[in-house]
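If I may wish for something, please sit down with the protein I am sending here and say whether tokens and residues agree:
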Amino acid sequence: MKDFAKIISKYFTRYLTDDRGCSSQTIDTYRYAFMQFIEYMDKVKKVKPENITMKAVNYNNVIDYLLWIEQCLHVSISTRNIRLAAFKGFASYVKYEYPEYLQEAAQILKIKSKKKESCEVSYTTHEGMKYILQQIDRGTNTGLRDYTMFTLMYSTGIRVSELINIRGQDVSMSTPKSITIHGKGGKVRYVAIVKQFAPIFEHYLNQNKCLLPQNLCNCIFTNHSKEQFTRQGINQRLKIYVDKAREQYPQLIPANFSPHKIRHSTAMALMEEGTELIIVRDLLGHSSVQTTEIYAKASTARKRKAIEEHSNDLVDREQPLWENNSTVLEWLKGLGKHNIM
């Protein structure tokens, strides 16, 4: 077995799990990065997986790998940066545990994340979310489950990974009604069950016997096979109702609306209602208020755009000085004659 195989094995089975206590989701993310790297080395560098050495995990190969997943696999900048984070985490481990590879590790740690262009937050309004929920037939067991899941997501802003991991023991229906959410990095927070949603949620829990003592360790939301939902499964269920709603209200439902965009919609609704940033941060489970600020900026930009559009007919368009001249050159020559400040 080559040194790379031995070290990567210890990294995943001992360091990430025992020393760092990383979640299974984080470990899967890191694992996938190295699986792709091995695939790259095999396909592009023609180095078989069993022949990869630690010397091959160097600055040039990691840079080339990142370029490969961008250009050939067409991953986003965010995904590219996540893959880089996996290698930096591994490099930090190697740097201290295997000093003979200090130089390679130090070079990898110098690789910078790629900046992405700021883009608008994709979300739907409260009205748009209402139309999506209206597509669900609550008269069926499947419909009641889906309506409960997506209403819960919108009323609390929880992540998909948090939703599918809620168990009976995490739910408290005594006043004040709340759910214990197990978030990223093992962080625990509590979200309130709003009074408008409480009767629907209680009906679902009772119908599915989620709070019986023998079921408290089971996930409250399961698929048709009575197994824990996957992220893909939740996405597929939402897509059914989103497609129906978009046919009727295309202007309200953005393209590629996903479960995570329900979270965006919750945050934007709170910001536009004037909710304090700290409260939104705590509700969403962000580790830093800087992460939450994206919604504040998006809300401000949206309001500014609405004001500007509303004011278009009120203010005459100012005519640039050079429009009175036949050429830009003439305007530039006469620039000194005008007080343009």
Observations:
- The chain has two domains: 3-109, 126-305.
- The beta strands are 171-172, 178-182, 188-192.
- The domain at 126-305 is CATH 1.10.443.10 (hpI Integrase; Chain A).
- The longest strand covers residues 178-182.
